[in-house]
Design brief:
Distance between the termini: 18 Å
Number of strands: 19
Structural class: alpha+beta
Oligomer: single chain
Order of helices and strands: HEEEEEEEEEEEEEHHEEEEEEHH
Shape: globular
Length: 323
């Protein structure tokens, strides 16, 4: 009998949804270095070749199984296994065996579709290994001189959960009062378009000058990326990415694009305040996510239909829908 993972017992859907997921920051992968990763229950490697292009491949050499991250090197745009010196290009194809005249065309590493955007390295995951079905969103703030990239080490967490559980918070308005102490939320509008799900929640922001009416605009792109912008307190942009590690734990990160003061060029107090608030709130949520179970047929209160809409939308991220 096959062992059932703890996550499978908690959640009635696949451990690894389909979509784009963060595996690193651009700053983490220097040219000529091989970086070890573990996501989707697999050992992976990430390297940046001489051309500057980033590649993500499975880690274990198809020859005799060495983990290429342990002592592997980069030569031109290829990665070289430390065990016998076999070279693989960014497609995962063996191109050189140093002690024979011809490479082994059957020997391949799985190559993960990889995109570097907004200072983040994403890979496409699909249960069948298929090619990407949609493009990553553009993040205009990443190329706007009025914003600064800010991703501190403390804005990263590893905990027991699933991406769907984390992103369900975007439509669970009631918990903002009980868990986060937000004083007032108004209407919640949701819409979906294929792989995109958008939730706009009216909210009063507490400021030193008193409450300011505004809104939180959250755009989900599949089950790996949430782009959040605020209305009412100036421009802001925050990315929350959640990537499954092993079917039980996830890796969650916040990336902030913080508005700059046009006079000083420094990050604004408002922008840094948003960053602190986001980190504080996810740390309030994590103990709940780590301990809760999934109610397939929840006893919802009046006005919570957006939770059902979100769950119906999320089904497209799994092969054949929920298990």
């Amino acid at each position: 009998m096959t062992a059932v993972s703890a996550a499978a017992r908690r959640f009635p859907f696949s451990d690894y949804p389909k979509g784009w997921f963060q595996v690193a920051y651009s700053r983490d992968v220097a040219a000529g270095e091989v970086t070890s990763l573990r996501y989707f229950g697999r050992q992976l490697i990430c390297y940046r070749g001489e051309s500057g292009t980033v590649h993500v491949l499975d880690a274990y050499c198809p020859h005799l199984g060495a983990d290429i991250a342990v002592g592997g090197t980069v030569r031109d745009d290829c990665v070289v296994c430390p065990f016998h010196g076999w070279s693989f290009d960014g497609r995962g194809v063996n191109v050189v065996i140093p002690y024979t005249k011809a490479p082994n065309r059957v020997a391949r590493l799985r190559a993960w579709p990889t995109v570097e955007r907004a200072g983040i390295i994403f890979v496409w995951h699909a249960p069948d290994g298929g090619e990407p079905e949609w493009e990553l969103p553009k993040i205009p703030e990443a190329d706007d001189a009025a914003f600064s990239f800010y991703a501190p080490d403390e804005a990263r967490w590893r905990f027991r959960s699933h991406p769907q559980e984390v992103f369900e918070n975007t439509v669970d308005i009631a918990h903002f009062a009980t868990v986060h102490g937000v004083s007032a939320f108004g209407n919640l509008d949701v819409e979906q378009d294929g792989h995109q799900f958008r939730a706009v929640a009216e909210v009063n922001f507490e400021t030193p000058r008193g409450p300011v009416s505004g809104a939180v605009d959250s755009e989900l792109f599949g089950m790996g990326i949430d782009v959040v912008r605020h209305r009412g307190l100036g421009r802001s942009c925050t990315l929350l990415t959640v990537t499954p590690i092993d079917g039980e734990f996830v890796d969650a990160r916040y990336t902030f694009f913080v508005a700059l003061d046009p006079q000083t060029g420094e990050k604004t107090r408002m922008g840094m305040g948003f960053a602190r608030d986001f980190c504080k709130q996810i740390e309030q949520d994590i103990p709940i996510w780590a301990a809760k179970i999934y109610r397939d047929k929840p006893a919802l209160a009046r006005g919570e239909s957006a939770i059902t809409e979100f769950r119906n939308w999320a089904q497209q991220s799994y092969a054949g829908g929920p298990r």
